[in-house]
Amino acid sequence: MISQPTSSSNVRIFGAHSLYDVIRKRSDECTSNQTLQLSLKTFLIESLTSGTYSQTTAVLNKLTSSLGLFTLYCVPDLWTTPVEDLTGLLAGTPEILMKVLSDIAGEFSFLLMPLSQRNTLKSELHKFSKSIIQVIAVVLRGGDTSSITKQAAVECVEQWLRLPGMTLDEWTPVLSDVLGAVVEDCTALASILDLLAENDEFQRNTTLIMYICQFICIHVSKKIEEELCADPTSEEVAALISATCLVATKSISTLVESAVQAGNTELIIRIAQVMQVISNIQGQYPQQELISDLPSWFFVSLRVELISMIKSEPKINEQFLGQLAQIYAHMLGVSILKLAYPEFNTWQMWNLEDRDQFEAYRLTRSEVCYDSYSFAATDTLSFLNEQLGGAVNGEDINRGETCLYLWQCVADYLSESDYPCILKCLEICARLSFPSSGPIDQDVDRRGGTMLRLLYSLSHLIQSHDQANELECVLFPVILSYVSPSFSSVREALSTLEKYSVERTESLVTFGDQISETCYNFFKCHSAKESDRLAALKCVGYVLSIKPPSETMTIIGQILSGQNINEPGIDAATIYFRYSFQIKIFSVLFSCLENKKGSETRSTIASTNEEPTIVKLFREAIPVFEALCSGDSGLDQNNTGNLIQEVCKAVRVAIISLPDQYLPHFFPFVASLLNSALFAPASVKAAAGLAKATVLQCGSVVGIELANMFSQWVQLFERHIESPHIEEYLQLVYQVVKKNWKMIRRFHDPSIVAFRSAIRICSQTISSSDDTAAVRCSAQILATFSAFIMSNGDSEMKAIFAEEGQILLRTVFGRIQRELIRSTVESLSDILYFYFKEFTTETKAFIMAEPYGESALVTAMFREIGNPRNFRQQTIRFNLAAVRSPI
């Protein structure tokens, strides 16, 4: 089919593919029969020599692949010198020779052979590399070599360098010829540079790095410039630039070391200038160019390497650092233009893909400001202030937004030494209030969001400044101007306002009324998002927390009365929404009415006997909560359950915020709520969270009542062991056991009853549950029990574990022979360790009667009872062995 002159091209292609598949899948038959082997080799070589001009490219490519694959199966036993032989036979057609030699390396990854044979073959191929290099050098240095042949030689180099374990040192002499051959071909040049950068040895080959970087500066940069002038959006030039940036980034460590220690600063400066030109290319990304983000990681890596070097080598050439600082500064200046959004009308015309690309572009280049700041901090910030001021004066909204964005990117790295520049920036920001009237300008809206994020990032420095009060008084009016339903990023304004209000500083006294009025008006706006309204209420709460409780409660009464829950004629959905929102109002107020510890506020007033506001508010809320939990809301069971869940969340916030001395007073209500909510399907999760907080907060002040309540819970959990919420119950028990062991154990009877029930729950769960999380939590509870028993010498609990020993041992030892996640195996191991160590004789006798109990791995576990870590490792091995060979 292949050699017949009368065969069509399709027939020949089919024949070539079939021959390739036969060699690949039936290689043993092809090589074991000497006659067939010789016949196949002769046919392939003759087809490539005498029939070259009659074959199509597709047939030739498949025949060279077949010969390359056949050669691999013959090396080394059946064909010891394939490179020399093929070179002699195919010397007259150098292009075919290059393709065959390339395919010898290229087909290696498709071989079907044992690993040991594959490794032997790989070693033999490495020995051929010198001969391959010589052949390639002759071809590339030939004066009359065609461009197609040179391209084939370059592909040959690529394939051999991709061969696993191939070293770069041997190939260095021929790389200059390779690069020279492809310098005008963007795709081939990019491929070679990518290949070099990805090689593991590249960063260790100083000579090659220096040569490649010089080649980039002289030749590649010129080629890139030519291609960019022709078509800045070309995919080929983008690939070349990407490969160039990758090589440059991988070379940074060597270039910096050469510059610092050997004084060779010219090369790294030239490379940085090449990267700078790419970064500063004119045009709007991604509409007019797609490459200016590619060098970003080079400059970040260069900055990191230099800062590290400066710490170890403080005497670095100042002129060298100055040149780099200029490059970074120039890039910062250009980035203000590159990162600026187009006008909103133009932005609206962009498709979603272009918008996403531009947003990602800003993130990619966000380090440009910190790069410049690292070398010239004051100059960088002063420059940004100058540009920001100019943009504000010139009403260039988007350029001003970019300056604010760059400020935000560097804000987290600033310190007290930057205060002069920060104060100047705040002075400019004070002029950027949100317009109170007129049409909404989306560009102004976006700039406002960026400015608010900047103020949020600078808050730690502003609030620690000597003039913090004056600065906050300047900023509050600006922030409040953005607390408006017409501002799309109002949540940024509320988050920033909360950040400055939560500390309850003196400025909150000065601006408290204005904050309350603005935020309350926003809170009353029903068109705003619920979460934003509650965030505004939280800011009101911070202001109220510094007022006298009686005055605060009057204001809160007005807030609550405005909800109109009992308005006649409203439907069930509205009733549910209003009740839910009212509960969330309570929750928000509970979270912010607690005074910051150590803060001086106006609530330290006339009477020190007056109850704190949060206590009064909680007392007001309890009747509402009780009515909702009893079903008096008039809602169906499902909605009532959802409201109980919201109540549990709100009460949890209150319990965490209440002063300790008031906890006993409210404990009966919390206990009553938990006794019902913990066993209502809709509210289990929230109730479990409340129960955890209650035990943590009330344990030291309530005592026996809490211990009795916990004991009752665990007994009820045991009755509800089939509940789908058993994991929530177990998590609650686990936290109490882990964090409140000593407090619970102070009360003998309830603790013993609770822990006995907990042991039975855990034992049954480990034995029969398919819930991975529940089994893990049960194992953690029992492991924690055993650890506390050993560390505290709790003889009574030890006796209980002895009573339950046979059941627990059979359960744990049986479960550990099933497939489990690693953390569960470790917890079960800790339980076994307790029994192996504390009851060695009894445990050994019992275990040996169980399946696998006499195995060598179990014997090894007994030998490690003096070493918990080794015991755990032996248990893990036992688990793996049992899973592989299940009973």
UniProtKB/TrEMBL annotation:
<protein>
    <submittedName>
        <fullName>Xpo1 domain-containing protein</fullName>
    </submittedName>
</protein>
<dbReference type="InterPro" id="IPR016024">
    <property type="entry name" value="ARM-type_fold"/>
</dbReference>
<dbReference type="GO" id="GO:0006606">
    <property type="term" value="P:protein import into nucleus"/>
</dbReference>
<dbReference type="GO" id="GO:0005737">
    <property type="term" value="C:cytoplasm"/>
</dbReference>
<dbReference type="InterPro" id="IPR011989">
    <property type="entry name" value="ARM-like"/>
</dbReference>
<dbReference type="InterPro" id="IPR051345">
    <property type="entry name" value="Importin_beta-like_NTR"/>
</dbReference>
<keyword id="KW-0813">Transport</keyword>
<keyword id="KW-0539">Nucleus</keyword>
<dbReference type="GO" id="GO:0005634">
    <property type="term" value="C:nucleus"/>
</dbReference>
<comment type="similarity">
    <text>Belongs to the importin beta family.</text>
</comment>
